Amino acid sequence: MNNLNGQVLIMLAPNESAYQQISNIPPLALGVLKGYLTEKGIRTEIYDLNVTLSKCASKLPLTIWSFVYDSQRVMSYLKGESDQEIDNALSRLVSGIDFTVYDLIGISMGADFSWLEMHGGMLLVKWIHDKYKVPVEIGGNNVHYLLQFKNGIVGCIIQCRFIYLCRTWRKITCLYKLYINLNDTCCTSWHTSCFGGNSFLNDRENFVR
Fold this sequence. Notes:
Layout: E1 7-12, H1 28-39, E2 43-48, H2 49-55, H3 71-78, H4 84-93, E3 104-108, H5 115-132, E4 136-139, H6 141-146, H7 153-157, E5 163-165, H8 171-180
Helix pairs in contact: 1-8, 3-5
């Protein structure tokens, strides 16, 4: 993409701690990513969905997320099976965000080994991808953990076209390089060495195609 005047949205998937006392310190990693992309001329917005969920906890009780603890249900949804309860919960969580104005969306799975964060985050990726048809990039420390399970949710989710996996430690440049290559004709065929889905930046910051 030659025009660097588009918009990128970066979100941190929520975890169960949002129903307890959450930190007043914003996620520094998201701030660093926003600063880097802004310096490159890309308008960027960030959302910590833990804060969002904490503010509406009375309307979205923890019990509404019971499906994230059912691995078969999660996998079925990621494979394309419809689930109105999942759609409804995710829609209510991000009801204040207009996804239609963004060219690329980045979602961090975080690093807390939380089912809401990992399974819920992946479900959110699939929901946004299917509903808004916008490219989505997945990152976060939990991605490295989930990659151990080749037949798990990561392998399933990246089978979807235009969902990208960032597995490099140098995440600060990953979103930028993906953004500027969105119109690359090779973009639709990037793939990982482990899965048949779309792509990632390897540890040398090169796209593996």
